[in-house]
Design goal:
Length: about 90
């Protein structure tokens, strides 16, 4: 999860530095959510034979939640990237 968080923050900062459109920010957040689920697949019980009966519903809910959080973290990175660009222009 921490790797996905770091990637989302760095992607947002990069988007902020180049003033990328918002769709790039959203796609970065969704990709960060997919990365988080992929990295934690074994911990979620992905390969286990004794999964919960509603595993796919729980997985979809987790993906939507992580997608929302990912877009928020990328947006925070975007703000930090714009702030850094503003600070560099002031020098």
């Amino acid at each position: 999860m921490l790797y996905a968080l770091a990637v989302a923050l760095l992607w947002g900062a990069l988007c902020g530095l180049v003033h990328a459109p918002f769709w790039a920010v959203v796609m970065g957040g969704v990709a960060a959510a997919a990365l988080a689920i992929r990295l934690e697949w074994d911990a979620l019980g992905g390969r286990s034979s004794n999964r919960r009966p509603n595993f796919w519903l729980l997985l979809a809910a987790a993906y939507v939640f992580l997608g929302m959080m990912g877009v928020g973290v990328v947006s925070l990175g975007y703000y930090l990237g714009e702030w850094l660009l503003f600070q560099l222009h002031r020098l």
